Amino acid sequence: METTGRTGHPLPYDIYRQAIERETLHFAELAKGADPATAVPSCPDWTLTELTQHVGALQRWFCTLLTRLVQEPPRSRDVELGLPESPEEYADWVVAGVPEVAAVLRATDPQAAMWAWGEDQHARFWARRMLFETLVHRMDAERAVGRESDVDPVLAADGVDEFLVNLPYAGLFAPAVTKLHGNGETIAFQCPDSAGGTDEEWRVRLDPDGFRLLPQARADAAPSEATATVRGPAADLLLLLYGRRSYQETAFVVSGQAAILDHWFAHTAF
């Protein structure tokens, strides 16, 4: 099968910049129209209050990193939040941070070298990360209030790529990732191409010393059979990788060894 997986090639920076603003306002709209005490099923032990505070705080933290173009891991995550006293005001507080986020992203050279916990050691890493942090939590909020999620398939596919590219570096805050090993097994994640062309596919290989995302297969290369394959719409794959879905749900077509999928998801949940 011909594949078109990006494997580490992000979308244009302006797409992230514009989508961050759109997703943040969408998230705030959901939070403002709901009871702050509403439970968030996909984030155990969190209510919309905690989720909204997390989204707003993380965006302000990312802005601080981008403004300073930090060159080494920061020793502290303390940042002035200006958090309102009442949870009912948190959604407006998130909205109030949008102009600063937009200004920082416009002022930052996406190719500027800076520290990042993932693969890409440039400012663009943080814009891409901020988008998918916000987008996934927007879908968390929608689930909490009983609304259906609509995600642009191109953005969703890029989110799958962003997750898999950076996952090998996530041991900093997800220790189980460092224990994800194997003996050469491969897992393929596939989704229909959003433009109606060839499928997109990402393959990871589990080796004795860890795991990695494999380079995109050449169009003329003979396809090899993966140890396990999960196929589904890009938005569903994104939620699956983030632990919001199960590969056993009817949204996915699964083939190969289920045990290797269980091994994968047991170590990548965070």
Secondary structure: helix percent: 40-55%
Number of structural domains: 2
Assign the CATH topology of the largest domain: Four Helix Bundle (Hemerythrin (Met), subunit A)
Low-confidence residue ranges: 1-5
Q: Give the CATH class of the largest domain.
A: Mainly Alpha
How many separate helices?
A: 8
Number of DSSP E strands = 5
Largest sheet: 5 strands, mixed
Using the CA coordinates, give the radius of gyration.
19 Å
Question: Summary?
Answer:
The protein is α+β, with helices and mostly antiparallel strands and 270 residues long.
Describe the model.
With 270 residues, this protein is an alpha+beta fold. The chain has 2 domains: 13-150, Up-down Bundle (Four Helix Bundle (Hemerythrin (Met), subunit A)), CATH 1.20.120; 167-268, Nonspecific Lipid-transfer Protein, Chain A (2-Layer Sandwich). It has helices at 13-32, 48-68, 90-96, 98-107, 124-145, 153-166, 234-241, 258-268, and strands spanning 185-191, 200-207, 210-213, 228-231, 253-256. It has a 5-stranded mixed beta sheet. Strand 2 (200-207) and strand 3 (210-213) form a beta hairpin. The longest helix has 22 residues, at 124-145. Mean pLDDT is 92; it is low at 1-5.
